[in-house]
Amino acid sequence: MNEETDRALVKRTLRGDRKAFEMIVRKYQQPLLNYVGRMVGERELALDFTQDVFVRAYASLRSYSPQFKFSTWLFKIASNLIIDHWRKKKLPTFSLSEPLGSDEDCLTLDVPDGEPGIGRRFELAELRQRIERALENLPGPLRELFVWRHINELSYEEMAEIKGLPVGTIKNRVFQAKEMLRRTLQEMS
Amino acid sequence: MSCLKIMDIYDYIEGSLAPEGNKELERHLSSCPRCRRAVEDRKLVAGAASGLPPFAVPDDFADRVMARIAPLKIRRPAWLIILACSTAWLAAASVLLIVSGRSGLELIAGAGHSLWGYVKTGAVFTAKAATLLTLAVKTLRPLLEAAYRGLSMLTSLVPPGFQALILVLALGIAVSLLLAMRKKLSLGD
Questions:
Q1: Chain B: nearest CA to A150, how far in angstroms?
Q2: What is the pTM of this model?
């Protein structure tokens, strides 16, 4: 139903109905800003980038293929924009399909006996603040997956579609992101 | 069962384990406090991460996006343009043949006529066309006006693809009618 609405709005926009595109903007402004904001850090920059995502989407709306979900198409545009930004700023980035080297071992169970877990050590509000700070230290590609999974609530299939990678690879990287975040939280405390 | 792997823990938290695997894992959890703590802690962090506050979207965000985009040019499909042009040419050629009262072959064969012959034919043709046009304007005007009003209403209700189909069908019928009436008109020289 939701997808049908999106497709109908895209059709109307292509027929010249600007109001339909405005409805798309209002529908996706919040989820996109939640994602872009956590990827670039600064609020004003995030607002500019989110605007750019919609402008780019509008300009290339004819290339949108209705066989894909409109939301994943929008997130793909946003992701490409952010990768360009990282490259321009020469921020470290890597392909999710490549092995992470020594960071691969974060998928081994590491629970010290007798210590309370990280989730028990803080009140919920403080834990959330710490998660936000820990997120900033995650490598960009892993942070992106974490945000999509936990904040945008995308499915592994949707993330795989956006990144053009197998679902298994994406799932593995999401678990890795979660474990790296846990480790950062432990180091911070 | 030996202690859990990280992937199993996350699959368990996300409810994506097969029922049998789920039962086996729960059996292990009931006897292993270390794994129980690992699961509980990851659940707490995942829960906290899913409730991170959204970024505030300015009230005029959508307006700002809409101010940056220009209206889309409505493109007609190439096949529709080709079809319309060929139909128009066909219709024009048919009308010309009917009004002149000559067949296409006759016209080609008559290419050897003297210039005077063409002038005479042209003069007769012009006079007859003018008479026909005057007659048509007088008699067909109310009909044309009604058709115009009907078409205006139709184009506002019917999608462009269907409109093209109706147009082609209508032209086809008109041409067939004109061909059928050709003998009756017998406007030849």
A1: 5
A2: 0.65
